[in-house]
Amino acid sequence: xxxxxxxxxxxxxxxxxxxxxxxxxxxxxxxxxxxxxxxxxxxxxxxxxxxxxxxxxxxxxxxxxxxxxxxxxxxxxxxxxxxxxxxxxxxxxxxxxxxxxxxxxxxxxxxxxxxxxxxxxxxxxxxxxxxxxxxxxxxxxxxxxxxxxxxxxxxxxxxxxxxxxxxxxxxxxxxxxxxxxxxxxxxxxxxxxxxxxxxxxxxxxxxxxxxxxxxxxxxxxxxxxxxxxxxxxxxxxxxxxxxxxxxxxxxxxxxxxxxxxxxxxxxxxxxxxxxxxxxxxxxxxxxxxxxxxxxxxxxxxxxxxxxxxxxxxxxxxxxxxxxxxxxxxxxxxxxxxxxxxxxxxxxxxxxxxxxxxxxxxxxxxxxxxxxxxxxxxxxxxxxxxxxxxxxxxxxxxxxxxxxxxx
Length: 406
Hints:
This protein is mainly α. It has helices at residues 11-30, 32-42, 47-75, 77-100, 104-133, 139-168, 170-191, 205-211, 215-245, 255-284, 287-307, 311-339, 345-370, 377-387, 389-395, 397-404.
């Protein structure tokens, strides 16, 4: 199926076709977090090495994202997605092998490194397909629905990994996750269309990479960087430290339990509002302004978290950060589609993923370092960084006005 066949699919049908692969890939990535630290400690792995294992996939994604984007342009998003899901199956096999032969450290690290490649293939392919399919009146809604699946997958994996490992054991948990990926692979094979652009010749790799130096593309990437730095990096990394330092409790739970419940607010608000705010950007033809307003909401949320002394203020701050990321996520993807040529949208999606992963990696490093000083400092400085996204998003606004007149 080529771009001309996109007219046969409604936005909802197209989004639903992408959801299984996206959702189960996220779940597969999430299930390891409750399992790896406990198993690692039991078998004598050091805490720094466990940290390396957990961070390995994102580090690999940062390196491979541009190459995966170019691959999606070359062979199409559909094939890239299916390849990525197949790689995820190998990842689960490595986890199981590490447990069975009692070389957990090697098996887990090898699996996480390969998972970086597999998750890059899946997430970039999905974003490239959304970009290829997007029309002027439904790009935000489609991007919002697909992004909601991405955001939901990892927290579902957190819960599934913890519950299943208690009920059936670690090996069976990874086997169940592998079965879920098989379902996603089969479903995607039959439902996901091939939306490659029909062009006479494709640009060379160097020419394609040079096109990413466009100031508008860099501006969109910077929006994704700041969003990931704030929410996926800073907030999720330092929230437990914030709760502990201010003796905040929720339902009488410990700092770990209370912070986990507060993180749940972010995990619920973000996917709940992402499709709605994506549709709002479509309706108003104003994704740049939605991104600017969403950045401002994140700023308010971060400041609230930085200065709140009690549970209510902290919870409101977390909810506002989730609401802001829900608005920025689909709008950033739509804006990228307006500034990247159709034949380079895979590479554009790879660049966007690179920016997001870079923000997600730097956020924890900067956040934990700054937290050694004043508790409010990490949040206030991050708020200042996100505030710089507001004029950047507004600068992109004329692009939408031009596209709407075509």
